[in-house]
Amino acid sequence: MLNLVRAQVYRVDRNDPDPRAVSHAAEVIRRGGLVAFPTETVYGLGADALNPGAVERVFKAKGRPPDNPLIIHVASMEELYTIGRDIDWRAEELAKRFWPGPLTLVVKKSPIVPKITVAGLDTAAVRMPRHKVALRLIEESERPIAAPSANKSGRPSPTLAEHVVADLGDEVDLVLDSGPTDIGVESTVLDITSEKPVILRPGGVSREEIEAVVGVVEVHPSALGVLPHGEDAPRSPGMKYRHYAPAAKLVVVEGELEEVRHAVQELIDLLRRRGIRVGVLGSEGYSYRADVLRDLGSRSNPGGAARLLFRYLREMDDEGVEVIVAEGWRDEKGIALAIKNRLRKASGGVVLEAEQLIKALRTSPTGVYIEVMGT
User: 249-373 has which CATH code?
Assistant: First the structure.
């Protein structure tokens, strides 16, 4: 056990967690405290979902906008019927196929769920995590657990307990540390309250996998990176606000891969000539001339890239990078759509087309510099 300001950190085996550590964490949940715990996606900041005071602490600890609903984590199908109402065959079939796992279902809310947990909506987002530590914590606490990612709002989600401590070490009561998470990006959020299911946030379960169970689904425009004008209340985490962002400025360059690499290097050269410390988020082992280089690996293995994405964004900050230039991901199949979504969201909309960027760098480099740096 390690004391860090208020937080206690317990190292627990992911496959055989110490019952004493889980019992202690469950008691913290029952008395209205906050516990950061691992899931297969990212670390979550957990509180009793049915305790308004505990949920309020989650919002305050994260600095989370009050209109951004929380995902409620359960350990059994029975709890889905407690949290939701009018559960139809689609929810049942999807839960049978993907639970426990990285799929969150948006269903109509039961009256027992406090308004603060769902940001005043008439729906609730529910999932069963595929991680023994998380499941045992929920079971032991005998409470559904509301848990957004365990980081300050807007920052890259934590895939290691040390990320949690860095962001929330003085805000959380206890951290359960079982090492790196498996998937590295958050769950897919699927709204099944309308006639046709809608993916609100891409994640660990792909559109193709969902459609194999319930037929055609739609993808909300926000899943591609930007919330359409005129939509105010997010129906799911990850929709409305800039998320996943490092302290450094992040620029995403999209297009054909060879053009992207050409444009990325020219942009790096421009920024470095002006004294900017630049990091690059590349792939396939391609070697850029930059101050810091992180490689997400083969594009034929987007699952591996997803596991590394948030960790590398945080490492760039640790190395004092001022601007991160990232190769964009055009593929929208499988978890690649989630990578595309996270990069676009983290950039705050600074997404440049490679072909146009190359032309602009040659005709108006000062204009490109101003667009990237905002000055």
Answer: 3.40.50.11030
**Cβ contacts of residue 76 below 8 Å, gap of 6+?**
128
pLDDT tens for residues 14-50?
Answer: 999 999 999 999 999 999 999 999 999 999 999 999 9
Give the pLDDT confidence of 51-110 residue by residue, as tens digits.
999 999 999 999 999 999 999 999 999 999 999 999 999 999 999 999 999 999 999 999
Q: State which H helix or E strand residue 320 sits in.
A: none
Gap between the Cα atoms of 34 and 43, Å rounded: 13
CATH of 2-224 given 2.40.70.10, 3.90.870.10, 3.40.50.300, 3.40.190.150: 3.90.870.10
Tokens of 19: 């019952």
Question: Domain segments of the chain: what residues?
Answer: 2-224, 249-373
pTM for the full model? 0.93
As a dihedral over the C-alpha atoms of residue 210, residue 213, residue 219, residue 220, rounded to 10 degrees, the angle is -100
Enter the tokens of residue 25: 């964490």
Rounded to whole angstroms, the Cα distance separating 58 from 360 reads: 44
Place of tokens 């699927």: 190
Instruction: Give the pair of three-digit tokens for residue 216.
Output: 């055609």
Helix (H, G, I), strand (E, B) or coil at 347: helix
Do the Cβ atoms of 350 and 255 come closer than 8 Å?
no
